[in-house]
Amino acid sequence: MNFYSINLVKAHLINYPCPLNINFLWNYGFLLGIIFFIQIITGVFL
């Protein structure tokens, strides 16, 4: 891996800019959105 790809991985996984006011309710909403999307997709295929 060259220096550019190492910096790219580090920028996205370690130094990811994120607001400080994100709390656990945002995480629940995000997970509920994923679950809702999965239910819609599986409902279409059933």
UniProtKB/TrEMBL annotation:
What's in the keyword line of the UniProt record?
A: Membrane, Mitochondrion, Transmembrane, Transmembrane helix
Q: Which GO terms describe its cellular component?
A: membrane
Highest taxon of source: Eukaryota
Any single GO BP term: respiratory electron transport chain
Q: Which residues cross the membrane?
A: 25-45
The record ties this protein, via InterPro entries, to: Cytb/b6-like_sf, Di-haem_cyt_TM
Q: What is this protein called?
A: Cytochrome b
Organism in which the protein naturally occurs: Plasmodium falciparum (malaria parasite P. falciparum)
The organism's taxonomic lineage, starting at the top: Eukaryota, Sar, Alveolata, Apicomplexa, Aconoidasida
